[in-house]
Automatic annotation (TrEMBL):
KW Zinc (keyword) present: no
Protein name (record): L-lysine cyclodeaminase
Organism: Macrococcoides canis
UniProt keyword annotations, A-Z: Lyase
Domain of life: Bacteria
EC annotation from Swiss-Prot or TrEMBL: 4.3.1.28
One GO MF term: lyase activity
GO cellular component: cytoplasm
Gene3D superfamilies membership: NAD(P)-binding Rossmann-like Domain, ornithine cyclodeaminase, domain 1
Enzyme class: lyase
Amino acid sequence: MKFYTDEEIIRHYKMKDAIHDVTQGLDALNNNLIKVKERTVINAEEDNVMLYMPAINLQKQFSAIKVISIFPDNPAHNLPTSQGVTLLTELATGKSIATLEASYLTRLRTGAMTGIATNKLARRDAHVLGVIGTGGMAFEQVLGVLEVRAINKILLFNRTEQKAHQFKEKLVEFGVTAEIEIVSDVDTLTKQADIINCATKSEQNVYQHMNLKVGMHVNGVGSYLPHMREIDIDTIEQAAVIAIDDVAGAEHEAGEFIHASHAGRFNFSEAIELKDLINMDITREDTDFTVFKSVDAAYYDLFVAIGAYEKLK
């Protein structure tokens, strides 16, 4: 059985590949060619969690199970926020054929979902991206947006400003040519940006809706536990369109949406699942607010694990 490291996958499997494979996989899901069980989440200590995520692709004839940890404080110890592996099995024989490190693929597939949703929901003329939270999941979220919009300016905010400077250096080293500015307060960011990416473990909203630029699109990939919140509930209530990668998962895990639902300000039935969004033509006014929320599901890991394996084998 072959083992593929993050370093090998990073060299050969890029954001454009992931967006293609996630879109193709969602088409298979819509055609009942994906089998999936709800992921098992086991809380460890504090905000640390272990996840076990199985799925089968009947079209590609592969199954995958990802085992991954999410330890938000790991960067302080020079370790990734998420670490794990995906085991890939061929359905023809039941033989396990590859194990892939899953840290990069987890970040990449979430960034791909962000890119797909942003392409459908954000204004076509959006050119300023705001990033709230520059931790482990943030980099690929930026790459996802850059893949679908002509961003010429990126605003960064992080509670620890030094980490924002490190994030800027990483973007520059990667080859990002947009102007990059570090701001000292969130309001400066939200009043200028056309799109914002939130990737935090905050327990309260990380911005004030009243300070959002009109026509803003908001991506939220943090707040992965019921007690966490990062998107302002006013944004959820006033959004013209809300898309969620997996509504069933969000009902149990997306803290701000659970809170908004309990407050009678949002109903999960109003949300569009990403699998449906890919086939929709969204008509939006320039003044509309739109939102994408990601909580992840096993089939997304399946899509990119198969895609990466097919490029690497």
